[in-house]
Design brief:
CATH architecture of the largest domain: Orthogonal Bundle
Order of helices and strands: HHHHHHHHHHHHHH
Number of strands: 0
Radius of gyration: 20 Å
Mean pLDDT: 88
Distance between the termini: 52 Å
Structural class: mainly alpha
Low-confidence stretches: none
């Protein structure tokens, strides 16, 4: 196999199925907000530059692992309902992705082992859970038919990996830390913003797979569900802000992004244009980034 050809093909794949440009920012935002919760009060960020780089790298590799496992379990479904995806078009094979994934996992194991025993231990737990999720929790089509439960269980992968991220940045996790559990929930609900936002479609964009929230719940109920997750996430953000900062501008800024996210969802609800669908997805990503980064700013403000 031609290496340059492979690099070109893997670039095409990541552009469509694993957009690094976006994922670097979303992962870095989570890493920084995590640091704000577990670090001692207002440390210089320069004290943690190595931990930040290692956590960012680990996060990207873990998410790539999840993506490859998803490609495997969704292969038949995607071949039937998403024929335009890279594997289905023959751009890259599943075997090639698995080989690349194994190489990256060696790097991930190295990062964890270098950091601490605890980081390595929690990584193993996260990877085992991902493997179980990649096998549809050994329930096959039964669990897939439970759309909301299935998506929630898959989202829990991020919860387990989040513990690993904490362990990368501190030798021992203080499980008595009151904000740790709040931040756990914040990470999962905020990830739900991106997950739900990208699966809110207008009628003209719905595929044959019936694999979006709008196709399962209808436009009105799915938009209401999305708004409820936005509300919950902002409430948790406010609680974190109250415990980490006295700067009112951070809360006000979060409120502005909250209003933008709600407004874009209401616009989607009233419109059948492709632009309305794209706007709600983009503002969901911006909302996700903004809340994490505003929490991160409590380190320096």
């Amino acid at each position: 196999m031609n290496n340059s050809n492979f690099l070109s093909r893997i670039y095409t794949y990541q552009k469509e199925r694993f957009p690094l440009t976006l994922l670097v920012w979303t992962t870095l935002a989570v890493v920084l907000s995590s640091l704000a919760v577990i670090a001692k009060s207002h440390p210089p960020l320069s004290n943690y530059w190595l931990e930040i780089v290692l956590a960012l790298t680990a996060g990207l590799i873990f998410m790539f692992n999840v993506r490859v496992l998803d490609e495997r379990k969704d292969l038949i479904f995607d071949t039937l309902h998403h024929k335009d995806r890279p594997i289905q078009r023959g751009i890259i094979s599943l075997n090639e992705l698995f080989i690349l994934n194994i190489l990256l996992l060696f790097i991930l194991f190295g990062i964890s082992a270098f950091s601490s025993f605890y980081a390595f231990f929690y990584l193993l737990i996260a990877l085992v859970y991902s493997m179980i999720a990649g096998l549809d929790f050994f329930l096959g089509e039964k669990i897939r038919k439970m759309f909301f439960l299935y998506n929630f269980l898959c989202l829990i992968q991020l919860f387990f990996f989040q513990i690993h991220l904490y362990a990368l940045m501190t030798p021992k996790i203080n499980f008595l830390h009151p904000l740790l559990y709040v931040h756990f929930i914040f990470v999962v609900t905020n990830a739900g913003i991106i997950e739900i936002g990208r699966k809110l479609k207008v009628k003209s964009s719905e595929g044959s797979g019936n694999d979006t929230y709008s196709s399962r719940m209808g436009k009105n109920k799915s938009a209401a569900f999305f708004i409820s997750v936005i509300l919950i996430t902002f409430a948790i953000f406010s609680y974190l802000w109250f415990n980490l900062s006295e700067n009112n501008w951070l809360l006000i800024s979060g409120g502005i992004f909250f209003i933008i996210a709600i407004s874009s969802t209401l616009h989607y609800l009233r419109s059948e244009s492709i632009n309305a669908q794209k706007i709600v997805e983009i503002t969901g990503i911006i909302y996700y980034l903004a809340l994490h980064l505003l929490i991160a700013l409590t380190l320096i403000i």
